[in-house]
Specification:
By secondary structure, this protein is α+β, with helices and mostly antiparallel strands. The protein folds into 2 domains: about 55 residues, LysM domain (Membrane-bound Lytic Murein Transglycosylase D, Chain A, Roll), CATH 3.10.350; about 250 residues, Lipovitellin-phosvitin complex, beta-sheet shell regions (Roll). The protein is about 30% helix and about 35% strand. It contains 9 helices and 13 strands. An 11-stranded antiparallel beta sheet has the order 7-6-5-4-3-13-12-11-10-9-8. Strands 1-2 form a two-stranded antiparallel sheet. A hairpin with a 4-residue loop joins strand 4 and strand 5. Helix 4 packs antiparallel against helix 5. It is elongated, with a radius of gyration of 27 Å.
């Protein structure tokens, strides 16, 4: 066991303050430290050390400022090329009052680099290997949905130094790519229903702001791309979240807790609750009414991040969203994102 203290022999004229000042401590900190290590009869309570022969002192005392700086040094404080791994596996579960839980799994490939000419980060992103409840989706609607998304992958996003997606690197490239593959998809997915789906998909991706919100409002993107300054927070703060994809964002109050998982990683836990006055039906429908409500929605958010102490990269991220009404849950969404 590592010994982090030693016995100091008190000399004539020594006081708690004089000894503490040489150690970079306050007299109160030294008193508490000594009393926590000594026998009951040897505790000290006064500034004067008359008749006190020895006092326990720390060998490696850290001030509050030292501890705070050490905490900051263990956590991400700015986005870097190494923050993300190249591959993550994702597990998502959806639950509601209106049906059985649904679980989907897939993998994500990422490649982040900084465009030195433009001074911004470019993130290459793609999804693949989808399964639903352990099986490869074989129904036509799921199949065409996956085929359409994969036809425009990889997508390139602009991401700011705080880690948030702000736009597409080249939106025209996305629309041109799909136009080139539209006919091939149409030949495989024949019939009016699939033709209508393909046309709707093309209209949607042509609307740059709509397409961007499609991604930004997912729990996946809100979890996988946290604001880097979240890791440096110490007190409660307000943040807006999309509890339902393509709805409006809802203001929540967040609190933070951090602890070492092991010698190499830190767990950051963010817990939050809805503070904005709106109903659960407004959130689900994505339409906020102007009049005030007497039955506001209740909702909780849990975000967990494991980051490497030395490399500051993201090892794992988890999130849970619960939306309720009158103490009964309406919608739950859980996601687990693991490196590798």
């Amino acid at each position: 066991m590592e010994i982090d203290f030693l016995q100091y022999q008190v000399r004539n004229g020594d006081t708690l303050t004089s000894i503490a000042s040489r150690l970079g401590m306050t007299s109160e900190e030294l008193k508490l430290f000594h009393n926590s290590h000594c026998q009951k009869m040897d505790k000290v309570w006064f500034e004067s050390l008359n008749e006190v022969k020895n006092i326990f002192v720390p060998t490696n005392f850290k001030t509050k400022a030292d501890k705070e700086q050490e905490r900051k040094n263990c956590l991400p404080h700015q986005l870097s090329d190494s923050f993300f791994a190249q591959k993550y596996t994702v597990n998502e579960t959806f639950e509601s009052l209106f049906g059985s839980p649904v679980t989907i799994n897939y993998t994500i490939d990422l490649n982040l680099h900084k465009d030195k000419n433009k001074g911004q980060y470019i993130l290459s992103y793609s999804q693949k290997d989808f399964t639903s409840d352990g099986n490869t989706p074989d129904d036509k609607i799921s199949s065409i949905s996956i085929a359409c998304m994969q036809s425009i992958m990889p997508l390139e996003f602009v991401i700011n130094e705080q880690g948030k997606i702000t736009g597409f690197a080249d939106h025209k490239k996305i629309t041109d790519t799909f136009s080139e593959q539209h006919q091939e998809l149409e030949e495989f997915y024949t019939g009016k229903i699939f033709q209508s789906y393909l046309n709707t998909f093309e209209r949607n991706i042509n609307d740059e702001m709509f397409l961007l919100k499609q991604f930004q409002s997912t729990l996946l993107f809100q979890t996988l791309f946290p604001k880097i300054d979240w890791f440096q927070k110490k007190t409660r703060w307000k943040e807006s979240f999309y509890l339902i994809q393509n709805s409006f964002s809802v203001q929540c109050e967040l609190n933070i807790e951090q602890k070492n998982e092991d010698d190499n990683s830190v767990l950051t836990i963010l817990t939050g609750k809805i503070t904005e006055l709106c109903t659960s039906q407004e959130i689900i429908r994505g339409i906020k009414l102007q009049e005030s409500t007497s039955e506001p929605a209740s909702g909780n958010i849990l975000l967990e991040y494991i980051t490497h102490i030395k490399n500051k990269n993201l090892l794992q991220a988890k999130a849970s969203v619960l939306l309720g009404h009158e103490e009964e849950f309406i919608h739950q969404h859980h996601i687990n994102i693991t490196q590798g």
